[in-house]
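User: My collaborator sent over this chain with a note saying "see what the structure looks like." That's all I know about it. Can you take a look?
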Amino acid sequence: MAPLVALVDTPSTPDRDTVLHVLHAVAIGNLRDDELPFNPTSAFADADRVRPADEDAVLRVLFEEDPDIDAVADVADAVALRWAAEAYRAAERHTASFLRWLHDPDPAVVTLAAALLVWFSPVPGLPGALAAVSCDTADARASANLALAHLSGHPGSDELGALTTGLASPDEMVRITAAIALARRQATTLPDAALTVLVHADAVAVSGAVEGWDRSLRGHVAVALRRLGL
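Assistant: Without extra context I'll predict from the sequence alone. Here is the result:
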């Protein structure tokens, strides 16, 4: 994990956003963002029962020319989960770097960093850093809004200010993601403007997705409306 982090940390690295995509894939695996908010303790509970002998057995089978999968069928899933847990925990040790990337001059890095960081919440300073992401690049601001949507608790003043400002953005994706975050974080005191944005997005079946996120924008809207009981 550290070499990938170092590459993204180095401004002269070509295609840093591609490296960040790889880092995300290694750290999060095949988990999709409909599993957010993520609880690693429960998700990786079965990983701790894996013994070194189980891992050795699975590795031997993987490298056989004619593998006998049945020989490790009872431990293969747990071993795979163990490896996923180790990758996640290795990435978790670098959240300070991920947080710095929210201030990166490359908006593609900011966009992907926001989508990655939310898997490790709570990260000290994350809400404020997400709120401070510039509105100048729509993808970055929209990704930060979706990350804010998946944090817990009522939004603080900085978060609320950023999301309220987002409702008036000229960019549709920023407006919709800001409304999604407000609906998920303060459903009982949702501004009328946010509800209007969500209802319109649902009516026109808004298309597309925010870079770094699995669920479509339409899917995020549907979840937000369900949170409101609509």
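A starting point for your reply to your collaborator: The two ends are 42 Å apart (CA to CA).
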